[in-house]
Amino acid sequence: MELGLHHLRPRAESMTEKEGVPLALIKRIGVLGANPTGRGIAELAATRGLEVVLADPNRPQIEQVPRLLDLALQHQLEKWAITEAEKRVILARIHFSDELADLSQCDLVIETLLEDRETREEVFRSLDRICRRSAVLASNTSTLSITALAAATTRPAQCIGLHFLQPVTRAKVTEMVRGLKTSNETVQCCLEFLATLEMTGVEVYEAPGYITSRLMAPLMNEAANLVMEGVATTEAIDTAMRLGYHMDRGPLEMADRMGLHTLLVVLERLWEEYRDPRYRPSPLLKKLVRAGHTGADAGEGFFCYDAGGNRLKPGRPEQP
Predict the structure, then answer these.
(1) Contact 34, 65 (CB under 8 A)
(2) pLDDT single digits (tens) 238-281
(3) Distance (Å, rounded) from C-alpha 95 to C-alpha 243?
(4) Using CB atoms within 10 A as the burial measure, which of 161, 163, 199, 305 is most buried?
């Protein structure tokens, strides 16, 4: 999602109160971004009993979210994972808005925007003005500097990276990325928050790609090259990796779930930072993104998907 700076509408006054909810007591979270990651975080947090404000200045996009969340929870209901009553309670805990000001009373705000440094820095400046002084500000970035984002605020000790993996509701781990001034209290606060979500937090010191993106992006990129070179079909590649290396999903479906446009941005940033050939984006990946075939959320990437995000067979045909 592209978030133009002209869409940012913070409150006119800044938050100057010194009292508030202690960092360790996160009861209400804000999520900025109605993309798959943002929706996944909102769904998971609400399922675990937290109040959630899901905001996105793009009104048409935020208006689609209740239907998409209802669809995701209906899928859980059909698998007997939740009851109809639980589904209603979960949805009731999620509040939707196209105003950043509605995030002002959250104890933790997580932004899930695209990997654009200037936009994210401006968002952090706005959240710093809007949110209570005790609030923690987190970014879901996988490549950008948390130190740089934190420097745009007056609370760098309360800024941290929380890199959630896809699919958020099934992943059991989240990378907690320290900036230069991130405090131990902020790290502990986020550890407890992730424990509430029944996730493990892995502490990471800032470096482009952190752990997961730096290791997995080259794998997904090389899988795309295999398809482009006609070495094997998408189905064969993912089957080999799933069964041979005990992966829940193969690298191509993982790329689709991540979003091929997001993967492309990650690879471009890693290539810019390290100049290592393994990070040079596959021409096929670029071609799919240009065509709008960006993965599960778009309905088509390396594989095709229904409206609920369930994978359909077969995958894309072999490349000539």
Answers:
(1) yes
(2) 999 999 999 999 999 999 998 999 999 999 999 999 999 999 99
(3) 41
(4) 161
